[in-house]
């Protein structure tokens, strides 16, 4: 039995508007040690910044990666009825089974990262409402899935990798991005899991119809998430809030995961400071979305999968960064005049 964390939208909004501050002391202790290690200053590039980021959000000058949790949320989307995915909605449940039997890409990548994989199927994989016709979620369902995401985070994790599975969710993600950041629907619509040009054109029409239908409510990022998003996207938002509360840094995966996180940034500019975008998805809107969140994705490998695959791939990189930081000798220890 999980406990309810957000009893109403006002409580959730308050949590989003008051993210706890970083531990800058831990980050500066790490930076001070970085400066005396046997290398030219700054020569490990972003690896140095990543160790400081871990320290800042774990609130420890000696960050660890002992307990890495990969958390994949699954949900189904009513908007699939509009022909926006190359795949039928049934594939969501089949992939959840595949995750449970160890057969998906994320099973291999999580094991490779020495991470625990938790898969949460939301609302028994019932569909959201088709956002061209109705709200994707009622306030009750929205709060329930945000809660499910919040409660899925292991409070003892050293790092959480977030990801998703949900046929049709690149359309929900694009709708959220379009509502929050504007621009043309064409710039947020991509092939997702393999839509052809005709499928992308349908997606663009669906995005425009969704924005038109909900236009009077889109100034509020929580309404954007509730009306246009999805169960797994809302759960990702809840997980990000929980991670902040439990001092856990977060790796966001690709386009869908980043779009899910975006309402927290528009509600508070510091709301995603404990999160890093792990990689730049091949989904064309992702780089634009990362820029809107003032982030630079860590890897760019042309992945377009989701499932937390890109996030899990960054874990070995973080282990490498930590190994240098903790294992290297100082100039004094090595007898090198600096
Ligand atoms: C077999 C399979 C495995 C997947 N794993 C992740 N996705 C990814 O593709 C889906 C989104 O694309 P769209 O919006 O075009 O439906 C999501 O489930 C996402 O996680 C998959 C998709 C498929 C088909
Ligand atoms: O980057 C993503 O999140 C993505 C891309 C394609 C399909 N599903 C997810």
From TrEMBL:
Reaction catalysis annotation: 5,6-dimethylbenzimidazole + nicotinate beta-D-ribonucleotide = alpha-ribazole 5'-phosphate + nicotinate + H(+)
The EC number(s) this enzyme carries: 2.4.2.21
Keyword annotations of the record: Cobalamin biosynthesis, Glycosyltransferase, Transferase
Pathway(s) the chain acts in: Nucleoside biosynthesis; alpha-ribazole biosynthesis; alpha-ribazole from 5,6-dimethylbenzimidazole: step 1/2
Gene Ontology BP terms: cobalamin biosynthetic process
InterPro entries assigned: Nict_dMeBzImd_PRibTrfase, Nict_dMeBzImd_PRibTrfase_bact, Nict_dMeBzImd_PRibTrfase_N, Nict_dMeBzImd_PRibTrfase_sf
Keyword Cell membrane annotated: no
Broad EC category: transferase
Stretches of the chain forming a coiled coil according to its record: none
GO molecular function, one term: nicotinate-nucleotide-dimethylbenzimidazole phosphoribosyltransferase activity
Record: active site: 307
Family: Belongs to the CobT family.
Function: Catalyzes the synthesis of alpha-ribazole-5'-phosphate from nicotinate mononucleotide (NAMN) and 5,6-dimethylbenzimidazole (DMB).
Name the record gives this protein: Nicotinate-nucleotide--dimethylbenzimidazole phosphoribosyltransferase
Species, as recorded: Kozakia baliensis
Gene that encodes it: cobT
